[in-house]
Amino acid sequence: MNRFRIPFGALAPREDAPAIRTAVERVVNSGWYVLGPEVAAFETEFAELCGAAHGVGVGTGTDAIALILRALGIGAGDEVITTPLSAAYTALAVMMVGARPVFADIDPARHTISPDAVESAITSRTRAILPVHLYGQPAEMDRLLALAARYNLAVVEDACQAHLATGAGRPVGTLGVAGAFSFYPTKNLGALGDGGAVVTMDAALAGRIRRLRNGGQTDRYHHAEAGINSRLDEMQAAVLRARLSFLPRWTGHRRALAARYRHLLAGATPIEVPPECDRGHVYHLFVVRARDTATPRPPEQTPRAALQASLAARGIETLIHYPVAIPHQPALAASHPNPCPIAERACDEVLSLPLHPGLNHEHIEQVAAALSGEATRVSRKD
Question: Which residues have CB under 8 Å from 309's CB, separation 6+?
């Protein structure tokens, strides 16, 4: 049992529970568990909801990124420019195909990759730009696409945290050559295990990814190329189909809760609330930044740690996304990363507050009140 009065997440089915039970029973009774009608139907339905022409279900969001890169012919000797602030899986997917991730610093407001930093990182080996629509906020795609056109580069979107997000009014995942999505249980559209998908407008690219995910087979036991085994299974596809109809409403609820946070936290001194730079933000996470004006603390404790501990004492669970910039991960040591000071500072300050469809406005008000209480304590000490 979670010890927090307001837990960070709530993954058990709620209003969608009857639909999930029906979906699971349907798959069990069918006797078909891999690459069957549920996967085919979900691919079509998810692509349509994303505004894409084609969808391909795969094992994970990481595989989705790697398969797109592989299908584009990107591999050993090539470079892919990506962000230092994300889950490390973004860069690991680049390494999976034998390419080198090159890190370009972030925009301090959006927290997504900076187009100016991207342009500075382009070399003769660069083949693609891999922006992450971090926390559900789209990267600055118009400028990135212009850069890509100027230098003849592919843009592959990591939309693993951005289901139904739009950038400048256009659906993410359809802006570049393809988009990668994750259905890890914590995502805005989550499975009951791992899962991922690729969406694209390119029929030929979709066809090659479909082949690569299934061992490179053109038909059973005939392998045209060395693919991998990364298939979204029928059970997860059925669960995702059951939840898909709820996603627009859940997304609206996330946006409403985020708007309430923004209203209540305006001017709160222990934190800085990053701006909403695009109305297409879907708030996979609601992230604030802890500042030095946080609650009085021991000298060895950082402002974020003190704030997080204070909220935990009030029964509010928070998490950190992400505490270590990807270039500083030991697994990336061989990539000779560029310095990314803006991202590194963000990693020291970001704190994710509870926000998910299981919460209501009262919960948000309680969290905001706790943060405002911190501000009051600081002013009284001063």
Answer: 301
Q: Are 58 and 212 in contact (CB under 8 A)?
A: no
**How many C-beta neighbours within 10 Å does residue 245 have?**
12
Contacts of 127 (CB under 8 A, 6+ apart): 72, 74, 78, 79, 80, 99, 153, 154
The amino acid occupying position 67 is L
Output the CA torsion sign for 249, 245, 15, 319: negative
Cα–Cα distance between 328 and 307 in angstroms, integer? 24
Q: Which residues contact 181 (CB under 8 A, 6 or more apart)?
A: 46, 50, 61, 64, 159, 160, 163, 173, 187, 189, 196, 197, 198, 199
HSE of 273, CA atoms in CB hemisphere, 13 A? 19
Taking a C-beta distance cutoff of 8 angstroms, is the pair 247, 164 a contact?
yes
Point out which residues pair with 156 in neighbouring strands: 178
Q: Are strands 271-272 and 286-290 parallel, antiparallel or unpaired?
A: antiparallel
Query: Tell me, what's the pLDDT at 377?
Result: 42
pLDDT tens for residues 61-76?
999 999 999 999 999 9
Q: Give residues with Cβ within 8 angstroms of 231, minimum separation 6.
A: 34, 35, 39, 57, 58, 59, 213, 214
Tens digits of residue pLDDT in 169-211: 999 999 999 999 999 999 999 999 999 999 999 999 999 999 9
Is the four-CA dihedral 171, 192, 257, 307 of positive or negative sign?
negative
- The pLDDT assigned to 378 comes to 37
Bridge partners (DSSP) of residue 180 are 158, 198
Question: Residue 232's closest CA among 23, 63, 12?
Answer: 63
Distance (Å, whole) CA 59 – CA 195: 5
Q: Where are the alpha helices (DSSP H) in 72-177?
A: 89-96, 115-121, 141-151
Place of tokens 């004006």: 293
Q: Please, is 8 exposed, middle or buried when counting C-beta atoms within 10 Å of its C-beta (0-12, 13-18, 19+)?
A: middle
d(Cα 257, Cα 359) in Å, to the nearest integer? 8
Q: CB of 131 within 8 A of CB of 158?
A: yes
Q: Per residue in 243-265, pLDDT tens?
A: 999 999 999 999 999 999 999 99
